[in-house]
Every structure is written in C-alpha cells, then in structure tokens.
Amino acid sequence: MIFSLFRKDPRRTLIAALYKRVATASREPGLYASLGIPDTLEGRFEALSLHMVLALRALRGLPPPADEVAKDLTDAFFRDMDASLREMGTGDTVVPKRMKKIAESFYGRAHAYDGPLNEADEAGLALALGRNAYGSEAPANPLARYALAADQGFKTVSLEALLETGPVFPKPEAFA
C-alpha cells in the first residue's frame, strides 16, 4: 500500500510533459527577438499565459476527457507559478496573495483573448496583446497573427496527438 505513493502516475506524467511543451514554446527566442515581447519576468509571464490560453482553447474544442486534461494542465500551470514565486524568495505568507493576483491576471487575459480569437479579429486581439504583452496601447499585430495562426492550427489536432507530441506552435519569425 505505501509503495503506491511512490509510483509514477501515468496521467500526471502526460500532463507534466504537455505543460513542459507549452512552457518551452513560450520561451521560443523568436517571441522576444522577432515579435517584441519584452524579455522580462512580466514578458515571460505574458508569453506563457498566451500559450496556455491557446492550448486550453484547443482542449476546449475536443471531446472528453479533454476537459479533465485542461483542468490538470491549468493546475500544472498554477503549481509552476507557485514554485516560481517560492524560488524567487517570496515568503510563505505572501505567496497566496501573489497567486491570487496571478490567477486574476491569467483569467483576465484568457477572457480578453477569447473573444477576438473566436471571431478571428486580428485588430481586437492585437490591441489586447499590446496592452498585456507590450504594456502599451500600440497594437501587437505580428503577435496577434502568430496567436491566430496557432489557434487555427489547433482546430485539426486530436487529443491523442496533443498528448503525444504536444501543441505545435508556428515559428514566431514567420510573423515578424
């Protein structure tokens, strides 16, 4: 019985691999060099949030158990954010407050991006991405084109393919 605590959960391993692929895509140098996301702590959060939103949207359109995978992927994201805060030296008493702000920011971005992505509204998405990713009122047109291309590409992906190979994001340099 006690040894079952030390066995690897295959589902958790799949989710960890999926999250790692999403996080790796958000660190693609072209996002920062070609598409202009600031290479700062905030910029990295914005890139990861955008890629998480895109991956979760892809899962939303798939049949069950994609909804459970989306929940587990979201949990992995927030566990990573929690661990990052602690790694940066944030005290145990402050972490819950910061996590609440991170969650509000993430879900706010998901809401802001969802409408323009649904409508394939490049201008609306560019404005939202400009405010969030660039921190300005200038639209982020190349980044919006990148996000729309990624979102469109996910519409043909199956859950099995998503879990096996992960989401395949376009090359950011193609949208600069």
Describe this structure in words.
It comes from Microvirga splendida. This is Ubiquinol-cytochrome C chaperone. Residues 34-169 form the Ubiquinol-cytochrome c chaperone domain. Belongs to the UPF0174 family. This protein has 176 residues and is mainly alpha-helical. The protein has one domain (38-175). The protein contains eight helices and no strands. It has helices spanning 10-26, 29-33, 41-60, 66-87, 95-119, 122-134, 141-154, 159-165. Helix 3 (41-60) packs across helix 5 (95-119), helix 3 runs parallel beside helix 7 and helix 6 crosses helix 7 (141-154). The radius of gyration is 17 Å and the shape is globular.
Individual helix count: 8
Topology as a string of helices (H) and strands (E) = HHHHHHHH
- Count of individual beta strands: 0
Uncertain runs: none
Helical residue percent band: 55-70%
Indicate the mean pLDDT. 94
First and last CA, distance: 55 Å
The whole-angstrom Rg is 17 Å
The fraction of residues assigned to DSSP E strands is under 5%
Structural class by SSE content: mainly alpha
Gross morphology is globular
